[in-house]
Sequence to fold (359 residues):
Amino acid sequence: MTQYTIRRILYSIPVLIGILVVTFVIARSIPGDPCTAMLGEKATAEVCERFNREQGLDKPIPVQFWIYMKDILRGDFGQSIRYSRPVTIILIERLPMTIELGAIALILAILIGIPLGVISAVKRNSIIDVITMLIANTGVSMPVYWLGLMLAYLFALVLRGTPLALPPSGRVTAGVIPTPFYEAFGMSVVDGTFKFYFLEFFANIYTFNSILVGEWNVLWDTLKHLILPSVALSTIPLSIIARMTRSSMLEVLRQDYIRTARAKGLRERLVILKHAFRNALLPISTIIGLQLGTLFAGAVLTESIFGLAGVGRMLFEAITARDFPIVQAFTVVIAVGYVAANLIVDLSYAFIDPRIKLD
Fold:
C-alpha cells in the first residue's frame, strides 16, 4: 500500500507539470494584455512597457516559466497583477470558501444520489424508478447558472418574509463576524508567519471554525447562506451518482450469489445492503471522485451567481483582468485537489473490496 501510494504520487508530478505548462501558455495566448486590462485602452506604449517590465512580462515566455517554476518550489505563487498582493495570501482567503461549498455540495450529492439510485434499481421499471430517473435526467440537464438564478428568485423573492426564505447572496449576514478559533483559544501567533497563515486558512472555513468556537449562531447563519449555492452546485453530481448507482446495482442484482442469498432465506434488506450494495460500490466510488472536477467547474458560475468570495469567482475575475499569477495558482490548486481525490478513490478500492491488492 505504501509503495503504491508513493508511486501514484510520483506519477502525479508530470501531470501537474503538464497542467502548469498548458495553463501558462494558454493564459498568455488570451487576446489582450494585462496592461490594457488594468490601465484601460488609453494606456500609452511607454506606460505599458514600464508596466510589463515591472511585472516581468517583458521576458521571453520560457524564461518567465522557468522563474515561475523556481518560485513555486519555494511556495511562492507570485504577486497578483490586479490586486498587488501575494497570491498565496489570496488563496488562503478564497480557497476555504470553495472547499466549504464543494464539500457540502458533494455530501448532498452522495446522501441523496446513492439512496435514489439504490431505490430505483430495487424498484426497477416501477413508477418509483421512472420518477427517480426522470428527476436524475432533469437534474443533469439543468445548467448551474439557470438553476442558481431560479433558486435565488424563488427563495429570496417569491418566498420573502416566510420561514422558507433564504439569503440569495453573500457568505454571512452583514454584521456577523466569526471569531477565529486561534484567538478564542488564546493561541500565540504572529501575523505574516507560516503558523498564522496555516491557522487563518482553517479559520476561514466558517462552519469548521464556528463548531470549534461554539458560535452556533454563526454556524446557522453560514449554513443558511450555503443552502442555495450548495443545492445548485450539487444537482449535476447528484444526478450522475444516482444514475451510476442504479446501473451498478442492476448489474450486481443479476449475479448468481444474489439469487443464492435470497434462496437461503435472507431478508431482502440484508441482501440489498450487505451483498448487493457493497459489491456495487467500486464504480460508485470512482464516479464520486470524478465529480470533484464537476464541482470545481461549477463553482466558477455558482460563486459568481450567489456573490461568494471563493476560488471560482476570483478565477473568473482574474481571467477577465489577465491576472496570470492568480489564474496559474488557482489552476494548480484545483489540479492538485483533483489528483488527490482520484488518489483517495484508488486507495479506497482495497478497503471496499479486500480482493483487490494495490501493488
User: Anything to note?
Assistant: The two ends are 7 Å apart (CA to CA). The mean pLDDT is 82. Residues 107 and 330 are 23 Å apart (CA to CA). The chain is about 75% helix and 0% strand.
